[in-house]
Amino acid sequence: MGSLLVAAAAAVSLTGCAAPPAPPAAPAPPAVDAAPAVSEQDMPEIRTEQVRSERRGTDVQLYLAHPTGLESTENLPVVLYLHGRDGVNPTPIPYDTLASLERLYHEGQIPAFAFAVVDGGYNPYWNDGSANGDLASMLNDELPGWLRERGLGDEEGLPFAVAGISTGGFGALTYAEDRSAAGKPVAAVAELAPALQLDWEGMKEKEAFASEEEWREVDPLRRLDELGDVPVGVWTGDADPFLDGINALVERHPNTPVVTYLPGGHEGAVFDAVGTEFVGFLADSLPQHRP
Predict the structure, then answer these.
(1) Are 286 and 160 a contacting pair, CB within 8 Å?
(2) What's the pTM value of the predicted model, to 2 decimals?
(3) Contact at 8 Å (CB) between 96 and 42?
(4) Beta strands 189-192 and 114-118: pairing type?
(5) What is the pLDDT of residue 20?
(6) Given its phi and psi angles, is residue 75 left (phi above 0), alpha (psi -120 to 50 degrees) or beta?
(7) pLDDT of the chain along its 291 residues, tens only?
(8) Which of 27, 68, 111, 264 has the fewest CB atoms below 10 angstroms from its CB?
(9) DSSP letters of 265-287?
(10) Which CA distances in Å does 104 have to 107, 153, 220, 235?
(11) Alpha-carbon distance 139 to 126, whole Å?
């Protein structure tokens, strides 16, 4: 699969009055990476640029995808999509999910929204104190500013929902729990084959946490009470190695309106079969529809 990474230009409109002096000229927009997606399906517009993350201590890639042909992306609702172990290359979001966003919008079945991805590095469980830096703080403290600067998300630059695949599914739950604990719950969580473990032995093999105590502090299955009644959709292969943890999520969370088991394991055949239902679930959770 080829690179999907392309960039988002922020549209800035300035209205001034005659009295104050003219503001300094705006800086030149960041360089844009543009490469077509390798897929036989029609793809949404996909853009990326580099942003500076103090929480990670490095420049990271901000990836945005939204339906083509929009007159404006101002105040476009955003779903935060957390990628899995292998990062943003060759793609952080399965092609079928991206194609479904494009197709369902142009068929008039869903309102427009965007996916936003930020690079969490290799093997991220999206926790602070990770080998890749403070990933949870990057999402909670820095991402809203990046989105707000680009006119995306709500008035605070917050995504209305969160989604994740594999280790990103682990992170999507913890992000949603953090948002609920802060009094700003997401409207929905979409989980694709989340990498959830029931015991330290299984988690230790993933080499993502320095100790059992560190894992237990952020393990989303132990924090589900913080999530409240936020709806969680779940898609997984029926032979996924994380199935015990996934089943525990379904059994313990009181609001799982969509639970879909497909034949297969933790693999592309499953990941690329859920797009229509996955995107539809997220669109249905939009607090208000754009015209």
Answers:
(1) yes
(2) 0.86
(3) no
(4) unpaired
(5) 36
(6) left
(7) 333 333 333 332 222 333 333 333 333 333 333 333 445 789 999 999 999 999 999 999 999 999 999 999 999 999 999 999 999 999 999 999 999 999 999 999 999 999 999 999 999 999 999 999 999 999 999 999 999 999 999 999 999 999 999 999 999 999 999 999 999 999 999 999 999 999 999 999 999 999 999 999 999 999 999 999 999 999 999 999 999 999 999 999 999 999 999 999 999 999 999 999 999 999 999 976 443
(8) 27
(9) SSSHHHHTT-HHHHHHHHHHT-S
(10) 5, 20, 31, 19
(11) 9
Please say whether the beta carbons of 128 and 34 come within 8 A: no
Three-state DSSP class for residue 99: helix
Q: What pLDDT score does 39 carry?
A: 54
Give me the numbers of helices (H) and strands (E) for the chain, helices first please. 10, 8
Pairing of strands 58-66, 114-118: antiparallel
Q: What CA dihedral angle connects 81, 195, 90 and 189, to 10 degrees? A: -20
Q: Which amino acid does the sequence have at 212?
A: E
Q: How far apart, in whole angstroms, are the C-alpha atoms of residue 73 and residue 119?
A: 22
Distances (CA, A) of 67 to 52, 76, 77, 81, 112: 26, 11, 12, 16, 7
How far are the Cα atoms of 19, 124, 252, 262, 273 from residue 268, in angstroms, in the given order?
Answer: 60, 19, 27, 12, 8
Instruction: For residue 80, give the nearest of 47, 113, 36 by alpha carbon.
Output: 113
Q: Reduced to 3 states, what is the DSSP secondary structure of residue 49?
A: strand
Between the alpha carbon of residue 181 and those of residues 174, 206, 224, 264, 275, the distances in Å are: 10, 27, 11, 35, 29
CB atoms within 10 A of CB 102: 21
Q: Report d(CA 188, CA 190) in Å as an integer.
A: 7
- The reported pLDDT for the residue numbered 28 is 35
Place of tokens 């100790």: 211
